[in-house]
Amino acid sequence: MKILKSHHFTSLPLIFSATMLFSSCLTSKRMNAFISDQYNNEIPRVNKRTQPANIFYTPPIHSDADISVTTAHTRILPLIVYWVIDDRKTSTLNPGIAAADFENTINKIAYKGLMQKLNGQRLELAVQQAPCTFALVDKTHAVWLIYAIHWEKVYIEPQPSDLVVSYRLSQQDGSSKSGTITIKNPERNKNLGFFQSWRSAVSQHLEDYDSNMTDMTKEFVDELMKQL
What we know:
6-stranded antiparallel sheet
């Protein structure tokens, strides 16, 4: 699978057949199996040994659900002289993956300022929303003249979902302070390179996704310390 930068002359039936071949070769089941393998077939574990005694996370992470759920969809816009064939595999990761990344990052950096800010007070954190969905898209454009001039683009399209976390601080005088913090998601579409396979592209996306969750969590902690 690759991005085709030059125009190609062929017939519309051949373009349609090529897209259908891609769709049938890469099934939802195959995508789910590949994603699961990238996470060693389990939700990442939280290192409870590093969790501060006065920081609590809700809701708990459930590890018995599927690693991902993928759906396949092909949309065809067949106009008179212009066609668009949009084939996509949309994968939603188990929310426990983002939650585990969030908790492990908090536990790792809490002693670099957050614990001093808390001063022994109880802090409750709940991830209300986190990025978890992306699509592998194969989009073909075709203009019908005598023959069809077509060009193809294959890319990873993350869902533009931000990190939203609510917090509640139980203060020493018996009162409490609560709020919600939203961290913008910087993920953007990523084109596949020449001759890059879908496996390589998805693997790279998942690696970037985990790194992005770590960065967003650190940004959350910085904002949380300003609000406490």
